[in-house]
Every structure is written in structure tokens, then in C-alpha cells.
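In this section we walk through a basic example: taking a raw amino acid sequence and producing a predicted 3D structure, encoded as C-alpha cells. The instruction is simple. Fold the sequence below.
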Amino acid sequence: MRTINVKQLSYEAFRPYGVFQDLLDDASCQAAAVMKRGFYPDLVTLNFGEPNPPTASVCSVARQPKNIIKFIEAHQYTCEGLLPIDANMVIYVGTMGREPKADNIEAFYVPKGTFVRLDPLILHGCQFVNEQELGHALCLLPARTFFNDMIFKSLDESEQIEVV
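The resulting C-alpha cell sequence is shown next.
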């Protein structure tokens, strides 16, 4: 099993996968928004595709003895939005070729309150928490994406990755 190290979230390192915005940092929200006082609209745009309406889901993330990537998924046509609500989290991402493979997976530390947009065809999967026992992430996706716009692959033990 190979291991990968968690990286600090930076615009340059994360650019191939999407964008992010710290929603708890008023200065960066103000810099990115049209309105500059207290209400910062349209900070991150997500393409949810037609005709499915956007939905808000919650991922309950329990601390694991080891952070092992056991599956990868991607969405063909739509973005996915993730917001760690009450815990700092680690996410993993990678780019997809013709088939989903875990060859180029990277891991990023996402502080709570930081919104991440994953672009279409970006490999990803479950989040990890390390600093507390349980955390929750808001997940924004079009309705029924898990049924109509998901590429999924379980990883054989030899393909699995430990995030350290």
C-alpha cells in the first residue's frame, strides 16, 4: 500500500481540482465579492447541470484508526461542493483519465468553514477527521447525483492508499 502526505490547501496546489473559499474569513470573502459589507453573494459558483435541482446533504465523518482510501468516485457532468462544518477535514482528489485510477491522488487539509468546489471528473471520496472523534460536512450536489452522474470504483487492497 502506498502512502500520501496531506498538503496545506493553497490556490496553486488545488487549482487542477476546483476552487475553495474560506467562508469564515471576512477579508477574503470581501475581496472576492461584489458587495463589500457583511453579505458576500456568489463567492463560489457550482454547475449542477440540468435538470436536477441542487440539494444539501450532510456527511457524518468519524475518526478512523488509519485514513485509508478504499474507493474513488467522480461526477461526469456536475460539480460537488464540500463545506467542513464543525471539524477540520482532510479530503483526497485526483484527475481522471479514461478509467478511474488512484495513480495521482493527493490529499489536502481543509479547515472548517472553508468551502471547496470539486470540478466535474475530479476523483474524490470520503473525508477524514484527525483532530476530534466526529465531524460533519455539508455536501452540495444535484438531486440524485449518486444515481445518475457518478463513476465509482472500489479499490483493491493493492490499490488502496494510506493518508498520513
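Looking at the output, two observations stand out. The first strand starts at residue 2 and ends at 4. The chain has three helices and 14 strands. In the next section we compare this with other chains.
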